[in-house]
Write a structure and sequence with these properties.
One of its GO terms (molecular function) is DNA binding. By secondary structure, the protein is mostly helical. The chain folds into two domains: 92 residues, no CATH class; 56 residues, Arc Repressor Mutant, subunit A (Orthogonal Bundle), CATH 1.10.10. The chain is built from seven helices and no strands. Helix 1 runs parallel beside helix 4, helix 2 packs across helix 3 and helix 5 crosses helix 7. The chain is globular and about 50 Å long. 30% of the residues are buried.
């Protein structure tokens, strides 16, 4: 089955961003990349039925990365490992640049409580409050509250860091 040009374009544009999103959630780069690859493959297979690809692959990738970590922690890491390489060098270069430029953001997000980290990661990827609430199954008020708290905490952490550098 040939992959549509629409999916090819989408994959090239969003794969590095998806890996970055999963890193922002706290997953190591290898787990994030593997989960992103698997989520994109699933999206490709369901492409005609996927209504919001960016949200769909982020939900799927988050679940897949968490499952991979859980399997690793329980010692049940027997899941078949397909070739996880990117289809072209441009995507790989973009991924490397994104991860390098986002390392400070990832480190900062890692210091947030899980709910704050999750909603802020979705927000940083361009999703609005209503979309975030729908995608992670929280009320909009809870998302707004978590975003407010996350931004306040990030501000505190930034001020602490700036004070340390001075």
């Amino acid at each position: 089955m040939p992959v549509s040009d629409d999916f090819d374009e989408y994959f090239t544009a969003d794969f590095p961003l998806l890996v970055g999103f999963l890193c922002k959630l706290g997953f190591e780069i290898e787990a994030a990349r593997d989960a992103a690859t698997e989520a994109m493959l699933d999206a490709c297979l369901r492409w005609e039925a996927v209504e919001s690809p960016a949200a769909w692959v982020r939900r799927a990738g988050s679940r897949l990365a968490a499952e991979r970590v859980a399997r690793h922690e329980t010692g049940d890491d027997r899941a078949g490992r397909a070739d996880r390489s990117c289809p072209d060098r441009h995507v790989e270069d973009k991924l490397i640049a994104l991860v390098e430029s986002a390392s400070q953001v990832v480190a900062l997000l890692a210091r947030l409580p899980e709910r704050q980290r999750v909603v802020l990661a979705w927000s940083l990827d361009g999703f609005g409050t209503a979309e975030i609430a729908e995608q992670i199954d929280l009320g909009e008020a809870d998302v707004r509250s978590a975003l407010r708290d996350a931004r306040a905490r990030v501000g505190e952490l930034h001020r602490e860091r700036s004070g340390e550098d001075a």
